[in-house]
Amino acid sequence: xxxxxxxxxxxxxxxxxxxxxxxxxxxxxxxxxxxxxxxxxxxxxxxxxxxxxxxxxxxxxxxxxxxxxxxxxxxxxxxxxxxxxxxxxxxxxxxxxxxxxxxxxxxxxxxxxxxxxxxxxxxxxxxxxxxxxxxxxxxxxxxxxxxxxxxxxxxxxxxxxxxxxxxxxxxxxxxxxxxxxxxxxxxxxxxxxxxxxxxxxxxxxxxxxxxxxxxxxxxxxxxxxxxxxxxxxxxxxxxxxxxxxxxxxxxxxxxxxxxxxxxxxxxxxxxxxxxxxxxxxxxxxxxxxxxxxxxxxxxxxxxxxxxxxxxxxxxxxxxxxxxxxxxxxxxxxxxxxxx
Amino acid sequence: xxxxxxxxxxxxxxxxxxxxxxxxxxxxxxxxxxxxxxxxxxxxxxxxxxxxxxxxxxxxxxxxxxxxxxxxxxxxxxxxxxxxxxxxxxxxxxxxxxxxxxxxxxxxxxxxxxxxxxxxxxxxxxxxxxxxxxxxxxxxxxxxxxxxxxxxxxxxxxxxxxxxxxxxxxxxxxxxxxxxxxxxxxxxxxxxxxxxxxxxxxxxxxxxxxxxxxxxxxxxxxxxxxxxxxxxxxxxxxxxxxxxxxxxxxxxxxxxxxxxxxxxxxxxxxxxxxxxxxxxxxxxxxxxxxxxxxxxxxxxxxxxxxxxxxxxxxxxxxxxxxxxxxxxxxxxxxxxxxx
Lengths: 339, 339
What we know:
Two copies of one chain form a homodimer. The first copy, chain A, is α/β, with parallel strands linked by helices. Chain A has a single domain, classed as TIM Barrel, CATH 3.20.20.210. In chain A, 45% of the residues lie in helices and 12% in strands. Chain A has 14 helices and nine strands. Chain A has helices spanning 4-9, 30-39, 42-46, 49-63, 100-104, 116-128, 142-151, 159-167, 169-192, 210-226, 246-249, 265-271, 290-303, 323-334, and strands at residues 67-69, 85-87, 91-93, 134-140, 197-202, 235-239, 256-259, 276-281, 309-313. In chain A, the strands form two sheets. The first copy, chain A, has a seven-stranded parallel β-sheet with strand order 1-4-5-6-7-8-9. A two-stranded antiparallel sheet of chain A has the order 2-3. In chain A, α8 packs across α9 (169-192) and α9 (169-192) runs parallel beside α10 (210-226). The first copy, chain A, starts with a helix and ends in a 5-residue tail after the last helix. Chains A and B meet through α8 of A and α8 of B.
């Protein structure tokens, strides 16, 4: 078995860049929407291994992608910690964290339990996948999860979480550490059930200036990554909106840094030479005509490093993208060849 | 008359950095909320000079700020172009631009008309202001206005505007040029009625990678700024989320660059030596305890250039900030002195 994706994560030579897309199993796919209707609500879909496995495999079958990412949401592993989670349709936390005493009521199961549905989904997907296609597990980064826990939903201004971190620095650090430890156990379980690489999504990293990012986001992400070092699988950090943090990211203990489309690909490759780079076409480009998508994808590939590069979007694919536009992106990468 | 604010815009020595705050006339102020209730809806408040002038002056009276910014919204001058605008409470455009033919129906009044209420507000404010306090006019940047016009409301993913720009590049360029010309006429009118500096808000600049930012945002902003060169007032470009665009911003034909809190202040000052810098405390910091606000503000001032610097937040103040926290920020700047 030689996975083009895993080889690229380890910065070994490959015939062409591997390609997958964040949120590749999603609403832009008619076959996803059909299963989503069948499942009823989103959390039921996540928690039904037969359906979640099917949804995970859909984009791989359709596009021949180099990696599948298990279908779930970054917030589902918060439920075993005692969090009341619903989607209406955006995420809503019924018992948000507003005070240091709320942090103490978060209980991390040791050993990790409560996400058996995901383990079963991983096993089903791994059995069905072509051996050359890699299977990714994932979780949210401590800062991003803490933001949801304190804000209670998707925020625009992140004032509640910043208020919490500034007012109760000890409690915030405790919360971030607890989340790092919980997510390390959660990812370990994913690897034990078939995940061959893990991605940590720091979706809200870009809300922080450099000093705060170091303390509130990067330090707990390091704590999480360091607990995964013995697993022997590539660790990917999706550092969304972190063009101002490249110097800090250079020392992140992981194999791959995922960058968004505002961050320059060649600049990131130059500064992050010790990591593979993943990204970073603007998801908005997939709204343009296929010929433009093709040109923009080729321009991205031209800036990419020769080894240690994984083609992807710079953020999740949006629901309004025509399937043929996703095809244009994926095919352009697949038809590229290292000279 | 010597305005500390205007002197700093022109990069002349001042006794201490001038200070004002984006959205300083806003919902965090109880006296604002009282007038807002009296006015009924937001657009009525903008269009009633007596009330808009009062609201403009409120934070200046309370905090002794170095600049007042006329109370309005960046979308109000789109109404004279034929746009149906309402706030519910977020902005909503009844006739969004979705096709090139929609661009042709946008008509720019020549000479500029349709915002007489703002001219009257400016005159009222200028008469009431202390002569040393500067009065700012403002508008939205072409990219930001085009985003609202095409999306129809505040967007998260900006897929419609990017689809439009990629699919109809000529029509997008025409739209951006038309907006640049309209805003130039609008700002000219503001200066004729008392504005002593003008700020152009490119709130959505940070949604673009470097190449797209150059073509879709910076080029039309340059077109706008160049039409204002003969007015003799400082031109400020609020380049929100543009830490990846400092090289491009260095040649922007304006006097001041406003930066957000993700952009490093000392790095921006080093790269933008030909401009004064405005910013950039994280608005979220104003949610922290006053002593933390004081420390963070002092840390910001320590990074600021000695001349050509205006203290501000890195984005608008949020409605949930306690008034005493705004006081902590403003006082810390006011009590600082250049050695």
